[in-house]
Amino acid sequence: EAFAGLPETDPSTQLMLANLELPPKNIPELHEGALSGPKECPVPRAALAAFKFTVKPPKGGFTLVWSNKGGSSREKLSFWAPTLDSSGGGGLLGQVTGALKFKGTSKARVCLGHYATKGYDPPSKEHRVLEVTDTATATLSDSEHLEAVV
């Protein structure tokens, strides 16, 4: 219940809901680096043709985003984000949210969304992330166009 002890159909509850103010909350991914903004970087056709896109299982499994555990809901529900790197290395790829570029490599993994599960267990291994590979770049080298493609 939104207000303990008051049914949702009670007129006083409706008045409280009508006057309820929720302050905006900054989402870090949208505000970090907002002053500079994403830089425009055209990718030549020949370079773009060298990119390979594959779907793969997340390396590190899944991280719990939210669950209703401890709440009063009858059904168990949880939301999970795929872990993009099992080693904890690498870093976020430029301004791209939910993408992990490996240092000294021509690959990046991209999160395609979060997964909901009925219960508190992580999703099955059948869920995937997108792996983007620049096949024209040597394995241990940085790709010139990877950030722009992702």
Give the topology, please.
Elements: H1 11-19, H2 28-31, H3 45-49, E1 51-56, E2 62-67, E3 77-82, E4 91-92, E5 99-101, E6 107-110, E7 115-118, E8 129-134, H4 146-149
Antiparallel strand pairs: 1-8, 2-3, 3-7, 4-5, 5-6, 6-8
Distance between the termini: 42 Å
Q: Which strands sit side by side, in order, in the main sheet?
A: 1-8-6-5-4
Structural domains: how many = 1
Q: Report the total helices.
A: 4
Shape: elongated
Q: Which percent band covers the strand fraction?
A: 15-25%
Tally the beta strands. 8
H/E series: HHHEEEEEEEEH
Helix content: 10-25%
Give a quick precis of the structure.
This protein is of the alpha+beta class and 150 residues long. The chain has 4 helices and 8 strands.
Explain this structure to me?
There is one protein chain. The chain has 150 residues and is an alpha+beta fold. The chain has one domain (11-149). The chain is built from four helices and eight strands. It has helices at residues 11-19, 28-31, 45-49, 146-149, and strands spanning 51-56, 62-67, 77-82, 91-92, 99-101, 107-110, 115-118, 129-134. The strands form two sheets. Strands 1-8-6-5-4 form a five-stranded antiparallel beta sheet. Strands 2-3-7 form a three-stranded antiparallel beta sheet, with no helix packed on it. Strand 5 and strand 6 (107-110) form a beta hairpin. The protein starts with 10 loop residues before the first helix and ends with a helix. Mean pLDDT is 77; it is low at 87-97.
